[in-house]
Amino acid sequence: MKTTIYYYTGTGNSLWAARKLAAELKDTRLASMRRASPEDGIPEAVGLVFPVHIWGLPRRVIDFVNRLPAGKSTYYFALAVNAGQVAATLTQLKKLMKKRGLTLSAGFNFVMPSNYIPWGGPAPAPEQEKQFAAAVKKIKDVAGTISRRETAPVEKGPLWQNLILSGLCYNLTYSKVPKMDKDFWTDDKCNSCAICTSVCPSGNILLSAGKPVWQGRCEQCLACIQWCPLEAIQLGKKTPAYARYHHPEITLSDMLA
Ligand code: SF4
Ligand code: SF4
């Protein structure tokens, strides 16, 4: 395979984007950052596809990049999947990679439906469809750039986003993310199926007396609350009223594969 795309996904948006891009690029292997070992063989081109968390890189992506073999002259590209504010996430990635002696040749902003349930449920279906259609169109353009191994400036938001959202909010919040699971709770619908324990990328959920207990090493991917089949997981006070979201073409089996 000429290209490997490493993806990180909580509710399927990034997995879907990675799959679509792989289909366009051809001769491309997909591997989950949750399980892959980047140290084992780096091909001609490497893609990183991941969600934007709090206007910056999720911890898992940072850890993954820090395990990439240093100084390899590989063509690296990235897709930062977000709900409308990529801010300076790709600039952060470029700098992180540079420290490791790696070059991010191109970085693309991908807007997809929001899965950040503390701020509300998903957008109406017609709006989601528009975003998927725009994403498909962009993936075709991006695939051309990547196939030709072109260099392009990483995409970023306006200055205020980069300074306030990435510069301030991200930096103030990053260290607090693991303990943000203290606001999860389960309601009476929970039937102890344990799906939440399997879908959590960080093994952060254990069942105690048949009910989930969060362990304080959360990544805020929101997979647990979005994939619970009974919608029994809640986050704070408002989520009982909100519908759940995962990408409509991604299944629980895809997440666990
Ligand atoms: S996935 Fe939902 S129903 Fe299943 S154990 Fe977790 S909280 Fe309970
Ligand atoms: S506890 Fe939930 S939100 Fe936190 S990392 Fe696990 S699945 Fe993601």
What can you tell me about this protein's structure?
With 257 residues, the chain is an alpha/beta fold. It folds into two domains: 169 residues, 3-Layer(aba) Sandwich (Rossmann fold); 80 residues, Alpha-Beta Plaits. The protein contains eight helices and nine strands. A five-stranded parallel sheet has the order 2-1-3-4-5, sandwiched between helices. Helix 1 runs parallel beside helix 4. The longest helix is centred in the middle third of the chain and has 23 residues. The site of one iron/sulfur cluster has 13 residues, from helix 6.
Write the layout of secondary structure elements.
Layout: E1 3-7, H1 13-25, E2 28-32, E3 45-51, H2 59-65, E4 75-82, H3 89-99, E5 104-111, H4 125-147, H5 159-173, E6 184-186, H6 195-199, E7 205-208, E8 211-214, H7 223-227, E9 233-235, H8 252-256
Parallel strand pairs: 1-2, 1-3, 3-4, 4-5
Antiparallel strand pairs: 6-9, 7-8
